[in-house]
Amino acid sequence: MSVMKRLSMIFKSKANKALDKMEDPRETLDYSYQRQLELLQKVRRGVADVATSRKRVELQITGLEKTAQRYEDQGRKALSVGREDLAREALQRRSNLQAQMADLKVQHDNLQAEEEKLTTASQRLQAKVDAFRTKKETIKATYTAAEAQTRINEAFSGISEEMGDVGLAIQRAEDKTAQMQARAGAIDELLASGALDDFTGTRGDDIQAELDRMGGGMDVELELARMKAELGQGPAPRSAIEQGQQQAQPQPQQHGQSNTQQLRQPGEGA
Amino acid sequence: MIVRIMGEGQVQISAEDIAVLNELDNELEAAIEVGDEPVFRTKLHALLDKVRQVGKALPDDSLEPSELILPPADASIEEVREMLGDQGLIPG
Fold this sequence. Notes:
heterodimer, A: mainly alpha, 83% helix, rod-shaped, B: alpha+beta, 4-stranded mixed sheet, 3 helices, 4 strands, disordered C terminus, PspA_VIPP1 (chain A), coiled coil (chain A), PspA/IM30 family protein (chain A), PspA-assoc_dom (chain B)
């Protein structure tokens, strides 16, 4: 029984060391009970920490999904205005984001599994601590050294082993959570800087800027055509379209001003 | 005989099942010695599956010491090595 035996020997020797520390076994029982309560608190904190990390990863995944959707919309818009190069760039960025999301989802599943395990361990430990308290009080009430020593050893070994097991589970969960938090922190920074999918530091909004620059003229053109169709004026005259394309250039008389003048009543001040 | 699977709890197994577990345990130890992670993982899971299959779970509030203790299913070969070392990973 190599591995199994050796592991159980390690647990037993730890329990025996703790028992040997105290001369009066009743003191050991009380001391052990206090440690159990402390461990229970630690387990509960551990569960909360893992849950917090899991929620954080969930928020990040949601954030990345929104960004990926934005790139997809930009790709579609770029294609609709004949800019295949921009569309390709947007879809490439979306693809990079999807890889990040897949990675985060694996991390999320790991954290969820850890959380479930710790929750189970916490419930099990709680039941054992309750049982230990009852046994401890019974032993103390009927204590005589010769009679009680065996029962004390059994109860103590049982709970000590459980504590070791749960303590190890907590330690492993803390390690995994710490790694995850470091990673989550890095992703948060990249998300905030907009450089998540482009580690050269180029801002991710240049596609949008380009689309906006092009979109101004195109949108005006489309809107004019729509209005003319509504008014039954047939196809828009060429000069009007050209005027729409030149919206960004300064005009001798601003569009807003001419409207205001048209709305002014005779006798009104300027 | 009481066996603990770390992170899962304790199970009661009968004496006639011990021989099979012994064999699997020896194979697990061999994998740890040569440092073969894939074989280690396979052997560990085989051993744990067998214990779960033949064992009967103890109630949560029992305070029985285990005669045998097994590493958790997701333990790495390195973690098990550390557990078996002088210091061990087990706190306190």
